[in-house]
Amino acid sequence: MTINLKILLPNEIFLDRIVTKINAEADNGSFGILPNHIDFVTALVPGILAYEDRSGDESFIAVDEGILVKCDREVLISTGAAIGDRDLESLDRTVEEQFKRSDDREKQTRSALAKLQVGFVRGFVELTGGTGETPQ
Q1: What is the Cα–Cα distance from 101 to 116, expressed in whole angstroms?
Q2: What is the pLDDT of residues 106-136, one digit of tens each?
Q3: Dihedral sign from CA coordinates of 126, 129, 132, 136
Q4: For residue 66, with 0-12 CB atoms within 10 Å meaning exposed, 13-18 middle and 19 or more buried, which class applies?
Q5: Model-level pTM greater than 0.90?
Q6: Considering only CA atoms, which of 84, 24, 87 is closest in space to residue 50?
Q7: How far, in Å, CA of 80 to CA of 23, rounded?
Q8: Helix, strand or coil, per DSSP, at residue 69
């Protein structure tokens, strides 16, 4: 027996594969799904999702938070980001690099926003003549 596993990103289908077993992580801990598992919906936390194909090979995918829906013999996962690899160590390095890039972009964005806020406040002060009141 098998399960059709689909991982959906905002702009693409990341994975569409026939598998025999899935392991994922929710707020209340890790869980496994086999083909006869009861149908359910759960929120996923950022972590590693593992699945096993028909030949018994295990693969790993790092997923951001998302939603997992198990219905009949299909598991749909909707998430903002996913990175896949067969080797857990390689995936760990890739995720670390991606997070570092994300952190750098986030810092640049925060810096740009702070500069915009300072510019807005200066402009407002100049407009109001330092009184804080809107000119009539």
Answers
A1: 23
A2: 677 777 777 788 877 877 777 877 665 655 5
A3: negative
A4: buried
A5: no
A6: 24
A7: 19
A8: strand
Answer positive or negative: Cα dihedral of 98, 100, 101, 102: positive
Q: How many CA atoms lie within 13 A of 93 on its CB side?
A: 5
User: Can you read off the two tokens belonging to residue 40?
Assistant: 């359910």
Query: Which residue carries 């936390």 as its tokens?
Result: 45
CA 41-45-51 angle, 5° bins: 75
Query: What is the Cα–Cα distance from 106 to 125, expressed in whole angstroms?
Result: 28
User: What is the average per-residue pLDDT within 25-31?
Assistant: 92
Contact, 39 vs 110, CB < 8 A? Answer: no
Span 69-78, pLDDT tens digits: 999 999 999 9
Q: End-to-end CA distance of the chain, in Å?
A: 75
Q: Would you call 81 helix, strand, or coil by DSSP? A: coil
What's the rounded Cα separation, in Å, for the pair 55 and 29? 27
Neighbouring CB atoms inside 10 A of 27's CB total 9
